[in-house]
Amino acid sequence: MTSQFVIAMLNPTIGMLFASAFFLLWTNQRGQNYILMIALSYVASSVGFLIQDVGPSFANKFERIPANVCFLVTGYLLIGGALKRYGLRIPHVLMAGIVAAGAAWQVWFVLVQPDLTARVFMVNFLLGCISLIGAVKLHPVEKRHSVDRLLFWVMVLCTLNFFLRPASIMLLAGGFTDFGSFQQSFYWTTVQFTQVMISVLFALTLMVAIALDLIAELRREANTDKLSGVLNRRGFERDAVAALGACGERRQSACLMIADLDHFKAINDAHGHAVGDRAISLFGQHLAASLQPGMIAGRIGGEEFAVLVPEAEFGAARRFAEALRADFPQKCAGRLPPSLSPSVSIGLCLAGPGVELYDLMHKADEALYHAKRLGRDQVQVFTPRESGTAATKQALAGS
Questions:
Q1: What was the pLDDT predicted at 30?
Q2: Span 54-59, mean pLDDT?
Q3: Whether this model's pTM surpasses 0.90
Q4: Which domains does the chain show, CATH number per domain?
Q5: Using CB atoms within 10 A of its CB, is residue 309 exposed (0-12), middle (13-18) or buried (19+)?
Q6: 53 Cβ contact partners less than 8 Å away, ≥ 6 residues apart
Q7: DSSP string covering 277-328, please?
Q8: Of 58-67, 211-220, 265-274, 370-379, which gets the smallest average pLDDT?
C-alpha cells in the first residue's frame, strides 16, 4: 500500500465515518431532516473523492465530471442542512442552479475545450459561492451559543479557502498541463489536507450544535406540561423568576395573572375526566396562541394557569386578560359537549420592581378568588383590601 493511496483514501474514509455518525444521530431524531442532509453531504463528498482518486480512469478523464458534481452537491447539502438547522429558508433554486452550471462547465472544460486549470478555478469559485450564501444568510441570525458563532466563522473560512487557495497556490506553483502533474502537485496535496481539516471542523461543530439542540429539547420536555402545551409549574417558576429579576434590574414593573377554569370539578363529575382534560388542553392551546412576545405562561395546578407579563403597561395586561377570558368559549365551540359552556376566571396583579414571584402569585390568587366570589367568568384586579380566607378558598375549591 503506497503512501499516495493512503492519502487518497483519507477524505473518503473520514467522510464515510462522519456520514455514519450523522445517520445515527438522524435515526434518533427523525424529525430533524437537516441532520439527514448533512449525512448525505458527507456521502457525496466521499463518493467524489473515490471517483477522482481511487476509481478507474476513463477517456478524456470523463470521471472528473461526476466527481466534481459530487463536490458541488456536497456544498449544497452541507450548507443547506446548516441553514435548515436555524429554520432559515434554503435557496434551493439558486444553489441547484450553481450545481447545474458547474456540471455544464465541467462538460465544457473536459470534453469540448479541455482546460484543467480553468476547471479547478471554476469548481472552487462555485464552492466558494455556496459557502458565501451560507455565511451571508447566517450572519444576521442570533447566535446564542459559542458553537453558533463558530459555525458562522467556519463558513467564512470555507469561503476564503475556496476563493483564495487556487489563485495563491497557482501563482506560486503555476498551472497544470495534464492530470498526472495535477495529481502530483503541491496544490492537490494542499486540497487533500485542507479538505480533511475543513470536513472535521464542520462535522465537529455541527455535532456539538446538534447535541445542544437535543439538550434544549430535553429541557423543554422536562419543563413543558404535555396536556396543555405550556410550561409546567417548574418551568414557569424558573422563567418567571428570571424575568422578574430582569425587570427589577431595569426598575420596570410586571403583571401576573392567574386563570382558573370555572366549575371544573362539576365538569369532571358530569362529563368525565376525558372531557375535563380536553377543556384544559383547549385552554392551554388558546393561551399559547394568544401570548405576545415576552409573556411567560404555565399550568401551575390542575386547572389553574399563570401568565407573567414583564415590562407591562397595566391597561394592556388587563385587556389581554379580558380577551383571553372572552374568547375562550368560542375556541371551545364544537370541541366539547354541547351542554357544556366553559368559562374562566382571572385574577390580575401589578408588581413593582423587586417583588418576589411567590408574593405576586399570592396576590393574583387573592384576586382570582375575588372573581370567583363575584360570580366567576370575569377578571378581577388585586387590591390590598382583598384577603380571601382559607375557609373561603376551601369552599370554592374545584370551582
A1: 78
A2: 69
A3: no
A4: 3-222 (1.20.1070), 233-396 (3.30.70.270)
A5: buried
A6: 8, 9, 11, 12, 183
A7: HHHHHHHHHHHHHHPPTT-EEEE-SSSEEEEEEET--HHHHHHHHHHHHHHH
A8: 58-67
